[in-house]
Amino acid sequence: QVQLVESGGGLVQAGGSLRLSCAASGRTFSTYDMGWFRQAPGKERLFVAAIKWNGSIVRYEDAVKGRFTISRDNAKNTMYLQMNSLKPEDTAIYYCAARSSQFILRTTPERYDYWGQGTQVTVTS
User: What are phi and psi of 63, to 5 degrees?
Assistant: First the structure.
């Protein structure tokens, strides 16, 4: 079991940057694959980025490639999402998620078992 808490969201102008953090409880953080998802009002929750338990493999949604960077520090039980060159279409609630590591790094919300409360990211034009 793992408990997740996101932080770092806020209001930023287009072209700006934010760094989201996801702090996990417990001593088994390194055994979990992790992901970031986002959900805009009235929209489905969608994949943003994911990272394997040891950081060896990462995946990104096409719209954020080259702008967002996912990383993790297992010694600190923390995952990060560095968001640069933000666009208004990035506006959403961003959620941290975790699941026990499998061979395939999952990119769909239903494959993840643990979720944070979400943090709001708003990008103005």
Answer: -65, -15
Question: CB count, 10 Å around CB of 33?
Answer: 22
94: its two tokens: 């961003």
Say how far residue 75 (Cα) sits from the centre of its chain: 18
Structure-token pair, residue 114: 């643990």
pLDDT tens-digit series, residues 61-112: 999 999 999 999 999 999 999 999 999 999 999 999 999 988 899 999 999 9
Q: Please state, in angstroms and rounded to a whole number, the distance separating the CA atoms of residues 93 and 97.
A: 13
Q: What is the DSSP string of the chain?
A: ---EEEE--EEEETT--EEEEEEE-SS-GGGEEEEEEEE-TTS--EEEEEE-TTSS-EEE-GGGTTTEEEEEEGGGTEEEEEE-S--GGG-EEEEEEEEE--SS---SGGG--EE---EEEEEE-
Distance CA 101, CA 90 (A): 28
